Amino acid sequence: MWDWEIAGNDASVFRTRNPDGTFTNVFQAFQPPAFQAFEESNSISGGLFSIFATVQGGSLSPAPTPPDRVSYVSWSTAEGAPWDFTVSGAGADSATLHFWGVTTPLTLAAGASNSFTEYISTVASAVGIGPSVVLAVPTLNEWMLIAMALLIAGAAVYGLRRRS
Fold this sequence. Notes:
By secondary structure, the protein is of the alpha+beta class. The chain folds into 2 domains: about 1-135, no CATH class; about 135-164. Helix content is about 20%, strand content about 20%. The protein contains 2 helices and 8 strands; from the N terminus they run ββββββαββα. The strands form 2 sheets. The chain has a 4-stranded antiparallel beta sheet. The protein has a 4-stranded antiparallel beta sheet with strand order 2-4-5-8, with no helix packed on it. The radius of gyration is 21 Å and the shape is extended. The mean pLDDT is about 85.
C-alpha cells in the first residue's frame, strides 16, 4: 500500500497512463491492470505536482513486476481491512494497493522470500512517459568532497572567531 499526500492534499486524484485516462477521485480496482503506469496528482485538473508509478512493461531494467491487481482506494478503508474489501467511495484520503498472488496464490517456504520490482518517480520519463530527462546526481565521492569542503570551511571560520 502506498499512502499518497501530494502538495499537501491527502486525497490525491488518480489516472492511468499508457493508455492515458482522465483524473478521477472515484475509487476503483483494476484486475488485471491494463495500463503501464499511473499518475497521482494533488488536483483533478492536473495540479502542482504529480507522482508516477509503474505497473508493467516499459524499458526500465529490471522490468516492473506486473501485479495481479492495482486499486485506487480510501486509505482509511484499506488501513482497516488491508487484504480484501469492496472498493467504493470517492474524494477521501487516498492510497494505492498493489497485489501479487491474487490470481495464483504465492507459496513461500519457511525463511524464503520473494521480490517484486516497482518504480516511483516525480519525473514522467523515469517510468517511460514523455521526453527523456537526465538529472545529474552527485556520486558518494562528490558528496564526500562537498562535506569535507564544508567541514574545512567551518573549521576555518571557527579558528578565525577564536583569534578575534
